[in-house]
Design a protein that fits this description.
Order of helices and strands: HHHHHH
Number of helices: 6
Distance between the termini: 19 Å
Radius of gyration: 19 Å
Shape: elongated
Oligomer: single chain
Number of strands: 0
Largest sheet: none
Structural class: mainly alpha
Helix content: over 70%
Strand content: under 5%
Length: 171
């Protein structure tokens, strides 16, 4: 059970790294296309903050707006800086859409070998039980519980349903 947990957790953390890499690449390319200064710093911070469910992207977007403002203090606010802020926020909105509907479901379902709806419910339960910390720890704890249930409670139908995909290859 411990070996299964370690294997699945390592795939989960590899999935997180892949998600961070994809978000960073998307953000750097998008911000650079629109001529936003400090694109790499903004993109890396956005990817890092995105690991915190729900409120992390808000912190990332706020950081991006502050960096954009502070990088352009010499420019006219309404004619030059404000349009850049709108572009930054639009890029963040598009990144969240892509991340929430493409990256996360595919990456987490492949890395943890669980259905995307299952992951969503686990994060919601983690939020109710432990707030932000519960959301961050929900998936790793769930994967450990699934591994132990697979070994020790394999005769139960619900455990069989929850663990039937655990032998597939993932990240």
């Amino acid at each position: 059970a411990i070996q299964d947990s370690i294997k699945i957790l390592s795939r989960y953390f590899n999935g997180l790294l892949l998600q961070m890499l994809l978000i960073t690449i998307y953000m750097v390319v998008s911000l650079s296309i629109f001529g936003i200064k400090n694109a790499l710093i903004i993109a890396f911070f956005a990817a890092l903050m995105n690991l915190i469910p729900y409120i992390g992207p808000i912190f990332g977007a706020a950081f991006a707006v502050l960096i954009t403002l502070s990088s352009n203090l010499d420019l006219s606010f309404y004619s030059e800086v404000f349009p850049q802020i709108i572009k930054v926020l639009a890029i963040f909105a598009s990144m969240q859409f892509i991340d929430n509907y493409l990256f996360q479901p595919v990456i987490f379902s492949k890395s943890v070998m669980a259905h995307p709806l299952e992951i969503f419910v686990v994060i919601l339960v983690g939020a109710n039980l432990g707030g932000i910390t519960g959301m961050v720890l929900a998936i790793p704890l769930y994967t450990i519980l699934r591994s132990f249930a697979k070994i020790f409670f394999e005769k139960f139908k619900i455990v069989q349903l929850m663990t039937k995909n655990m032998n597939e290859s993932g990240f």
